[in-house]
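Quick one - first record:
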Amino acid sequence: MSFTLELTPAHHELVRRAHTFAEEVIRPAAAKYDQLQECPWDIVDAASREGFYSPLFYADMIADPTGLSLPLFLEEIFWGCAGIGLTLVLPALALSALNQAGTPEQLARWAPEMFGEPGDIKLAALAVSEPQGGSDVANLQTRAVKDGDEWVLDGSKIWIGNGGIADVTIVNAVVDPELGTKGQAMFLVPKGTPGMEQVRRLDKLGHRASHTAELSFANCRIPADQLLGTEDKLNHKLDKARRGEGRSAALGTFEQTRPMVAAMALGVARASFEYACDYASRREAFGGPVIENQGVAFPLVDIAADIDAARLLCWRASWMAANGVPFHLGEGSMSKLKASEVAVRAAEQAVQVCGGWGYVSDLPVEKWYRDAKLYTIFEGTSEIQRMVIGRTLATEAVKGPQHHQLPGDHRGLSRKFGHGSLARARAGEAFLKLAQKAPDKLLELGGKLASPGK
């Protein structure tokens, strides 16, 4: 499918429904759950009743060949509240890992347990990060050892969204330490499994409506069939890794989700930017609205341009992922990098525009400021995104920009006769020579025919 900025009627309806839900259900509850630091169960249930919280919903979003449904949805939901939004989408991250590494039978068995249904809400978590590892996925210490018909997990995980309260936790663990990220596998651990414990709930700067915890695994035994995929598939993957082939399931999940994190950051950026513009238009000082002062308007102008630029990067990366177009220069990381950093700047500028009122909880901008910072940290810090992009430069940048690599019909008639072709250029030159000798009426007609239109 060709990349286009034209949204379908279904896209517009999705944006309308998501924005209405964010405005009428999420935003009124945002301050409450930010203060309580509790899972917003009633909001999750309302999202489920609206059709926004189920494995089939996310599968349908991911199946959109334009790649735009999910980022459109996420931007609106996170415009409402980043913490509540994260609670709603965390099970989708675990679902992505299940879809990447699991079997069809495991997908059918466990996906419903990750979401539940209206009136019986369930949660899921993806446990990858560890205290000593951070963004270094190759430095994980949690081990998984096969013991008869069971796998035994031992280790620690931290920064785990829904950790300790999830009905299903997908745990990334090392099965062959010598193979780095390629020597890892993922395991399904249901709630209540002996040996998995919540060490503590983390007291965070922002996203406080999203439950985040540290987990420990001590002699945590699970049945062999709760390895994502099959043991034969795992052994085949390990053999390939020993030959220098293959890839990490966790890294595959991150590659898919970075443009989605960009969309989340855009929601916070847009909320901050819109509020700042509205406040600056209403707030009067020195004889008029403060937005008429260049010191206020110009920073907002830069943010407006950067939000749109980041959104285009997000849409491009999402379209590429949906259509199997390889990331040439780390385009997924580009979208996450730019969206996360403009979110921080937009929120900071909103606080600045609102002055003292922006620094206290009377206005929502201080919350957005706290929320925005997370996007430059999780799913790979900004420094990691720059490393991912930087590693492509020596070999890929010399091949030209992304549009030099995009798929398309390289043999069609438009190659020889389309806009910009040599044939059209020669025809235009011939017409200009002919026009010099043509009557005025004929020249006027020819000019109209040759005009590119308005």
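second record:
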Amino acid sequence: MIFGHGKHVVHDGRAWGDGEQDSFPTFSTLPVPETRPFDDFLSFDYYHQRCPQLEQIISTKLKSWIAKDHTLAASLLRLHFHDCFVTGCDASILLNHEGSERRAGTSKTLRGFQVIDDIKAEVEKSCLATVSCTDILTAATRDATVILGGPYWRVPYGRKDSTTSNEKDADTVPIGRESVTELLELFQSKGLNLVDLVVLSGVHTIGRTSCGAIQHRVFQGLNGTSDMSIDNRYLDYLQRKCRCGGDEYVDLDATTPTTFDSQFYANLERKMGLLSTDQRLYSDSRTLPVVNALIQTPSLFRHQFAVSMVRLANIQVLSGPHEDGQIRTNCSFVNSY
């Protein structure tokens, strides 16, 4: 799930990018509630005078890190999702102490902490105790998406950092086996909707997951039963890829794993969703119309992904003069003063 190499599996040669339209389909029949684009205390010009060089610092540092390890881009997206879906976008996932979210079992495979620490250290040299770790993680996630070939969006700033982090809270992050109903309830509890669920699941256009995370699905058919929700040829590939255990990694998008595109949704139509939660988006009557729209109009995915990412970064933010929170000077620790 958005919050969890080898030979590429390619079936037919259908070009899903052909025939893109300039106009986006409307989701008039879907339950898309009206929401504010971002918190009242957040603004695009929040750091224009406070720290005008912020975005340049983030961009330069991030490009340097990803040039050395391209997989860090997808890791930062996952880190941001984990942060926002636990107690809101508050950088609580970055706190590193006994009993913190970062120490939880569900967080063991998270990466990118050093990248945020490095950016933060550079920002502190120019703008002491001014820019929150939450805002840095949010902007770095946007820039990582762009580096991957995804869309650009403007990030509203002004978030504060949490002073607490609880290991047990990390258990609320989906693990890839939930039903669509369970996921919808989770998203709705965060102020997100059905379209956000489908579109943000599309982050699996890039990134990998461990064989250990899909053992229950890949090998359940070895005892005489067959998983009808997964293509036979793809299943055969996964069983061969993961036969040695959970240390191997598998691309979440089997056909274009290094390209930020809508191929992820076309894979679902072919029963090639790697995670159970992904494949269920195609089999559930509530999410299927959105999946089909994203298959039929690939450009819609880029547009809506940017919209949903802004909405994601608005979950339970700490902002404004009366909110608890602080501007951490070290993202791993609460300020001592």
